[in-house]
Design brief:
By secondary structure, the chain is mostly helical. It is built from 14 helices and no strands.
Length: about 350
């Protein structure tokens, strides 16, 4: 299969990240548990390899498969960590912060882009990618506003660069800013880190460093709710564009913008909810066996995410940023800091 070479490389890096974590933290530092995140090591290894060597094109399908399919499968399986009631409670609490950060990014980033002389389309793509769900939102928005290929590439590169930096820095910043409160830290990660993969990585890094899975749960649910903003924002961007242009492009159908892995996550939460309601679970699975199934599913979900995070590193090209120029990078940096700042302010104000 075409995906095997790249997928195997991502798997090797995920395992290598775990090995290095144990080697540095336990064997070299002599600690009972390594303080070094295996996920972070896998990401850094991927970035190092991607930007040191010229990777064969045969690896690209597998890297992409890990970054998209394996990631989404892992997120679906994460749904078993939470009941539907817990998912709903987190989603409702996160809404004010999501609305605030999305609104601020869309308004201020597009305004700054125009002031700096960037095309309105590029500014819109950076704003949408920062505020909702990174490259997915950029790719979905691009055809509705007739964006050029180079504008899409620049926007994706900006989102990738600052999203990866946020993924590596924000877990520690969130823990420090919110005094170790996992709900606040998870809400911060879910509303300020760009891509779904990057949010999952940040949540895993937080979990591994601070031994608290709650932040990953909150970050994941918050990000999935944030992703659903595509249902409103992308048609809105298309309407705004079509007021001034008429070139035959049409806004996408609303149902095409519902990420299926969000639905899968909800289904897994439903399965967890129903399974926990009875003893035996579902009328035939003993309680101890059901808890074992839940535990193994959680572990496999994190294993899938580990592979996806290695793929994130392998897909991060620093060299490709040279062609972008300082203005788009400046807008990307501003938008990342803006979303993070608004998120922190709203969380401190509301919670």
């Amino acid at each position: 299969m075409a995906v095997l070479p790249g997928l195997i490389l991502a798997l090797i890096l995920a395992v290598a990240g775990q090995y290095l974590s144990e080697l540095i933290g336990v064997k070299l530092m002599g600690l009972p548990k390594s303080p070094i995140s295996a996920i972070m090591m896998a990401i850094l290894l991927g970035i190092l390899i991607r930007n040191t060597f010229t990777l064969p094109t045969a690896l690209q399908p597998g890297i992409r498969f890990g970054l998209v399919r394996v990631l989404r499968f892992g997120i679906v399986l994460l749904g078993i960590r939470l009941s539907l009631g817990e998912v709903g409670a987190i989603g409702l609490k996160s809404l004010p912060v999501i609305i605030g950060t999305v609104g601020a990014a869309l308004l201020l980033v597009t305004h700054l882009s125009r002031r700096l002389g960037l095309s309105g389309k590029l500014g819109t793509l950076i704003a949408v990618g920062t505020s909702i769900c990174g490259a997915t939102a950029i790719v979905a928005t691009a055809p509705t506003i007739a964006a050029r290929d180079d504008e899409v590439s620049y926007a994706v590169a900006c989102i990738t660069l600052f999203g990866v930096l946020a993924m590596l820095v924000y877990p520690f910043a969130g823990h420090w800013i919110f005094n170790g409160d996992p709900f606040a830290a998870g809400l911060f990660l879910g509303t300020s880190v760009h891509e779904t993969a990057q949010v999952a990585g940040a949540g895993l890094v937080y979990q591994q460093y601070y031994d608290d899975p709650a932040a990953l749960d909150v970050a994941t649910v918050t990000k999935l709710v944030r992703n659903l903003g595509m249902l409103l924002v992308i048609p809105l961007m298309s309407i705004v564009y079509h007021r001034n242009h008429s070139d035959g492009t049409e806004p996408p159908k609303w149902w095409t913008m519902i990420p299926l892995f969000v639905v899968g996550f909800a289904i897994m939460s439903l399965i967890r909810t129903v399974g926990d309601m009875g003893d035996p679970a579902f009328g035939f699975i003993p309680a101890e066996q059901w808890q074992a199934i839940v535990g193994h599913t959680k572990e496999f979900a994190e294993f899938c995410l580990g592979i996806a995070m290695a793929a994130v590193g392998l897909g991060t090209s620093i060299k490709g940023l040279r062609d972008i120029g300082l203005k788009p990078l400046g807008v990307g940096l501003f938008s990342a800091l803006l979303v993070g700042g608004v998120s922190i302010g709203l969380i401190m104000l509301l919670y």
